[in-house]
Amino acid sequence: MDCLCFWSLSKPFYILLFFFSFPRLIASAAFNLSTISFDEGYSPLFGDGNLVRSPNGRTARLLLDRFTGAGFISSKMYKYGFFSANIKLPGDYTAGLCVAFYTSNGDVFEKTHDELDFEFLGNTEGKPWRFQTNLYGNGSTSRGREERYRLWFDPSKQFHRYSILWTAKNIIFYIDDVPIREVIRSEEMGGEYPSKPMSLYATIWDASNWATSGGKYKVNYKYAPFVSEFKDFVLEGCPSDPIEEFPSVECYESYSRLESADYATITRRQRSAMRKFRQRYMYYSYCYDSLRYPVPPPECVVIPSEKDRFRNTGRLRFGGSHQGRKRRSRRRGRVQVSSIEYDPDV
Length: 346
Hints:
Residues 29-230 form the GH16 domain. Pfam families: Glyco_hydro_16, XET_C. Its EC number is 2.4.1.207. It is an enzyme of class 2 (transferase). By secondary structure, this protein is of the alpha+beta class. The protein has a single domain, classed as Sandwich (Jelly Rolls). 19% of the residues lie in helices and 32% in strands. It contains eight helices and 16 strands. The strands form two sheets. Strands 1-4-13-6-7-8-9-15-16 form a nine-stranded antiparallel beta sheet. The protein is globular. It starts with a helix and ends in an 8-residue tail after the last helix.
């Protein structure tokens, strides 16, 4: 079922349907965050005039046109930290676009780099943005750890906060105050757990060859420029020299503050919100992709009820109980039908 039917509903009916069809993913009160201006923490990366800062330095826009995309990078590298920004994505026709918010040290450790990603994938007009999270450790690019999801809101209409917590113990990806993914460090991961200082990046670029339906739909520059906006920047962590063998005393104090912050612990209410998000909006998980990984990677926690929803390709099942739910959902509306449509991007 084409999800255009979802967006074509009249606005009042759409709001009512959304409210009654999906439990609200409210996790907690807002985190206690100290924000900085662009110049306090970042430098231009590429794009020249396609990186536009507001006069007060609190907001940055990244533009993609037919000549170039744009990006910025943190002025320092960090060994562990909390990296966050309020982001608004382009609207209308966004097929082929990739907006990325991520940490990496690939410019320093070319063959043994670490990386933590939010990658937002555009779509044809009327169809929603999707996104994926991923992590690499010590150059383990052959072992991708991606999960793909849909959102419970339109990210082009207003700002939402996207955050990455990275400590020596765990990694948590947040949207607003909802944790959507947690990776707990295990001894079995060894060097594949990201552990070297990283920079924070934000970019917009043309990913026509893969971002939408496996490259079927390309960036259409008649809709350019495509604009993504960033504000309320947060950089919490200890600035570190990438070749420094041992952290400074100040860094150990920073690690302690980081691990005791409110965003470092997932409360019972937040864990419930995370479970609901993953049940309703995750449509691919590498942990259940037994064709790629006959033995799940060591950090995977295989949840039987979650595993039952996926094929051995890691994609959502579209038979069995999902067919039954699809038939029942037609009596309530079309929203849930669109939430389980086949996606060729994986």
